[in-house]
Design goal:
alpha/beta, six-stranded mixed β-sheet, 8 helices, 41% helix
Length: 261
């Protein structure tokens, strides 16, 4: 499922440069190993290609859009396997604050007073299955409404067929009016039930919370270690690539579908 999307090797020979030395399967496995275990690039085991080579492919695939194409292809296939229409027409938006490691610079980190977290914030929109549509990583000090404006604009550019987005109370107010006027996007706020005390699962909102749980099951994403926000976003997409590929493989082999790793 992954191989057809990866860039083809350059022509070899006198005018084509050196042949490719590293196996792309090992490159992908190395990226997923780092993502799942949370190790540093330099700590990749010796049975993978050199960490410099793995990182070079990781960075190149982010720049040339390979990761985006791979992620979107697997999402479309999984939605089709689940009997859903393509492309999606509805989503759920939310944000997650995570601690930033010492590798996160001042220019992209901040303090979320509500969550008491010094680091970054992931703004995501997922579909009704919990599959990632778009992701935006900012400093944790960015308010949900401000980050929501940018991530919804990114959603409109990437998936113009989405017309309805559910959100929590943190997105209420001017964002709802702006999304309707500027993006022709209906944002519906799912509020707590009147008189509610304690925890209660709310309609639609639990879907995106489950997606955050899937993402942070990767130790690399339990804390933000990336030097740039672009790499942090790529790591989130790789986590979903691994999850969707595993689910599709289980569906193809007749095993019971599962969302876990």
């Amino acid at each position: 499922m992954v191989e057809p999307v990866l860039p083809k090797p350059r022509n070899t020979g006198p005018a084509g440069g050196r042949p490719r030395a590293a196996s792309l399967r090992l490159i992908v496995n190395a990226i997923l190993y780092l993502l799942r275990t949370g190790c540093a690039w330099r700590q990749l085991p010796d049975d993978f290609p050199p960490y410099q080579t793995v990182y070079r492919y990781f960075r190149a695939w982010r720049v040339d859009g390979t990761v985006d194409r791979l992620h979107d292809l697997l999402r479309d296939r999984l939605r089709a396997a689940e009997g859903r229409d393509q492309p999606p027409t509805a989503g759920i938006v939310d944000a997650q604050s995570v601690k930033g490691a010492t590798t996160v610079g001042r220019d992209s980190r901040g303090y979320d007073a509500g969550k008491r977290t010094n680091g970054r914030k992931r703004h995501v929109v997922v579909d009704t299955l919990g599959l990632l549509l778009v992701v935006l990583v900012t400093a944790a000090s960015v308010q949900d409404r401000d980050g929501g404006r940018d991530v919804l604009a990114r959603l409109r550019a990437a998936l113009p067929g989405v017309s309805l987005v559910w959100a929590d109370g943190g997105y209420a107010g001017r964002l709802v009016e702006w999304a309707k006027a500027a993006l022709c996007l209906l944002v519906t706020v799912v509020r707590k039930r009147a008189g509610q005390h304690g925890f209660e699962v709310l309609p639609r909102r639990w879907v995106v919370e489950r997606s955050f749980s899937w993402i942070t099951s990767c130790r690399r994403l339990a804390c933000d270690y990336e030097r740039t926000t672009e790499h942090a976003e790529a790591m989130v997409k790789w986590a979903m690539v691994a999850l969707m590929a595993r689910r599709l493989a289980r569906l193809q082999t007749g095993a019971l579908p599962a969302y876990n790793w």
